[in-house]
Amino acid sequence: MSFEICFTRRYCMAHRLFNIRNSRCFVPHGHNEFVKVYLVSIGNDTLDGGVNMMAPFAVLKQVWHQWIDDHVDHSLQLSSQDPMLDYFKTREPENLAHLMITPGDPTTEVLAALFMSKINALLADQGLAVRCRKVEIEETPTNTVSFSGDAKDVISTAHYDGPQTPWWQRPDMTINDL
To answer: Which of 16, 38, 15 is nearest to 26 (CA)?
Structure first.
């Protein structure tokens, strides 16, 4: 038996799927997305008769919500292979911090895995005996992707030239390795 806590956050984003040419998704476009994270205890679930919680909600969601609100919200999500990166590096370097760079196209599937990895790094860094069991991203009111499992098992970094520990595995506020 265990308790599960779910937090939902909304953010706006833009992306393009560079590797799917001749499609509507090749052209940069945006979505208003909702991300849900499902947290479970990795410690003792017995309620103590006093506080009676895994951890205070404010503690569990503070860093995660800060990352979503201050870094993911209004980011432009691009593949690490997208030539638009060169444009931003040479013409708009001041906006590099607003680019979320993904290994391959920034699909909802890869985002769910990246978000799983990021929240688990943030939770572990806080020393909380909690982990994320599942991430759901609602891209549109009719399309939702869920991910549960180990992000390392599904994220391919074959075409990602970032550091040994990429942004999604680090407990910091980054969304790229530029």
So the answer is: 16
Selection from 30-44, 108-122, 155-169 with the highest mean pLDDT: 108-122
d(CA 108, CA 36): 13
In degrees and rounded to multiples of 5, residue 91 shows phi and psi of -100, -30
Tell if the pTM clears 0.90, that is, is over it.
yes
pLDDT in tens, 158-168: 989 889 999 99
Nearest to 39 by CA among 6, 81, 1, 2: 6
Per-residue pLDDT tens digits for 120-148: 999 999 999 999 999 999 999 999 999 99
Contact yes or no for 31/75 (Cβ under 8 A): no
Kind plus residue range of the DSSP H or E element containing 66 = helix 57-67
How far apart, in Å, do the first and last CA atoms of the chain sit? 43
Cα separation, 78 vs 92, whole angstroms: 15
Count CA atoms within 13 Å of residue 23 on its CB side. Answer: 9
133-163: b (≥16 Cβ within 10 Å) or e: bbbbbbbeeeeebebeeebeeebeeeebebe
